Amino acid sequence: MGFLLDWLHFCCSSRRKIYYLHRRYKFMSRMEKQLSRFRGWLPKKPMRLDKEKIPDLEENDCYTAPFSQQRIHHFIINNKDTFFSNATRTRIVHHILQRVKYEEGKNKIGLNRLLTNCTYEAAFPLHEGSYRSKNSIKTHGAENHRHLLFECWASWGVWFKYQPLDLVRRYFGEKIGLYFAWLGWYTGMLFPAAIVGLFVFLYGMFTLDSCQVSREICQATNITMCPLCDKYCPYMRLSDSCIYAKVTHLFDNSATVFFAVFMAVWATVFLEFWKRRRAVIAYDWDLIDWEEEEEEIRPQFEAKYSKKERVNPISGKPEPYQAFADKCSRLVVSASGIFFMICVVIAAVFGIVIYRVVTVSTFAAFKWALIRNNSQVATTGTAVCINFCIIMLLNVLYERVALFLTNLEQPRTESEWENSFTLKMFLFQFVNLNSSTFYIAFFLGRFTGRPGAYLRLNKWRLEECHPSGCLIDLCLQMGIIMVLKQTWNNFMELGYPLIQNWWTRRRLRQEHGAQGKANLPQWEKDYNLQPINPYGLFEEYLEMILQFGFTTIFVAAFPLAPLLALLNNIIEIRLDAYKFITQWRRPLASRAKDIGIWYGILEGIGILSVITNAFVIAVTSDFIPRLVYAYKYGPCAGQGRAGEKCMVGYVNASLSVFLVTDFENHLNSTLNEREFSEQHVKYCRYRDYRDLPSAPEPYAYTLQFWHVLAARLAFIIVFEHLVFFIKHLISYLIPDLPKDLRDRMRREKYLIQEMMYEAELERVQKEKKERKKNGKCQHNEWP
């Protein structure tokens, strides 16, 4: 019991009421301020929570401090039974059970080992009662917080309401509360990104008819394009790709560059304002003074290195110690495993590339005219679906490998274990999910050679871009992967637990009957729910971080990504809430003052997004070639202006001429004898900047090619430097702490010091009066 009290002195806190200064700071989003202007036709504060349903959401104004037995007289302790919350008591019990020895004389420690060797089947905190009942089993008829959360948070009818984060924190702990606070903030910040992305898409739709490039492609009935594969791909008119050219314009237009810059700035603003929001939450939830150093050593680390101890330089107490040589050897093995798994991903991508190269000819010879005429789109679509299946299969392998490598490293604390496991899983899944996208964006069609001198993989030609460009392949890749990934995740998060719990209820109904099932104790009802993920919030964070990567890294090629992410996250918040309240056992409450290593990963994705979008616009998009033509080679060359009239003749200038008789000798002999529009084909065109076959150096690069290449490199440098400058400027101008919060923290510190001084002075004076009084009494009684 003494150990328990000592641990409580360091880890628990209670509220101390001092002065009624002002109401607790309540965050109001800019969105609600804008909506408040339209109160004439909108309900008053439509997104605010109903205070009648959550009457205890408002808290008294008070300051807090770490609990200490020496200063117990400074704390308000109205009821010792309720002095520590259920979440705190749960953490205390779990702390003890993790470290208790269950067999004397042997190094067998902790509840986790008993769960591993199947001595116990499960260990979990109980819910406060049924989510359908208002009464709590833990507080003798008091209001059930689980029921309140179900009505005001997990119900689909309140999808437009703010989340009751204070109640979530009280029921599930600060760590889960911070996740939902971050998810809500991320979803709210997606609104402006989704609106701007939608405007970019609509701009492409409204300017579709006036686009000179699309018009020229649709009218180019006299331009014959070279075959895209060796044997079965036919010659085709350029006008046959009219639809693809129009679809490409929806995503690749003059507003794309603006949107790429906007999203880079948006990512910075999102992260900077999240730091401010997190600071407010940390202050409201008493996490400002909570430090990670309070975290205990992992039981596995204690068991492994209990024989080697050294004095902790901070606490001055002996603790288990891992030698430097042992740590380095384990890290080297872990890094080697990470490198090997990344090579496995690259090998899988190489397999997809081979599939694309082989099947494009197969689809070109297909019996169905629809597939035969759209062989390249069919190849891309099936390759994306196969890639998605490979992604999901490799994810299962990655999880086991990451778990093995993390345990091999023997991290000292739980936070170190989580950070190490998180970093490995993110690297695996990020490379697994985005490797094919990087291939399509930056390698597809870039190293294929030219007609008559194709680069080959064994006997197969490398895949070329569609005559309208490679951006349509990138859009298709991102759209299919993003929709399938989010749909699969939502099913696995909610659909799978629903099916499992339905089957369990059905079995219990058969064993006990409907009445017997209703009379089961709470621990058995909770036991029949699904266990929470053993890695806590890892999968929830990972899903959103990968989505953030899709939303920012290749957003220049897919402006609708923020809109799809927004629609998914509106569902995701309520889906996760419903899952935590109704389908999962109650997780162990734990404390955290931020989202941990995920913030650093978000910053890394923000930096990577600037680089990738610069390359997408410069390399994958036709923005730079069009710009060079408009200012250098078009009708407006030398006039210093650009417009649709300046793009007249661009399509013809961007296509090179090839003499059909110069094809490789090993091609099918019928390829040079194909008929097209009842005439023999003598010349065909292809996307490149090369000289005519009759030039002194046939098929050599023209001067326009080098101008375009120089413009692309210059754009990448200017774009990156400009955007990084804007990002750093925004980071510098936006302080991490709001000014009013900083002032309140200083005011609180001042008042606490003043209160402590006055309390100590009052106690000393009181002791002096008592000693003086006792001294007088003894003096009077002496005779």
TrEMBL record:
Pfam families: Anoct_dimer, Anoctamin. It comes from the Eukaryota. The lineage of its organism: Eukaryota, Metazoa, Chordata, Craniata, Vertebrata. It is found in: Cell membrane; Membrane. This is Anoctamin. Keywords: Cell membrane, Coiled coil, Glycoprotein, Membrane, Transmembrane, Transmembrane helix. Residues 29-165 form the Anoctamin dimerisation domain. The chain crosses the membrane at residues 179-206, 255-274, 331-357, 377-398, 426-447, 544-567, 595-619, 705-726. It comes from Xenopus laevis (African clawed frog). Residues 747-774 form a coiled coil. Residues 168-748 form the Anoctamin transmembrane domain. Belongs to the anoctamin family. One of its GO terms (molecular function) is protein dimerization activity. The gene is LOC108711011. The keyword Plastid does not apply.
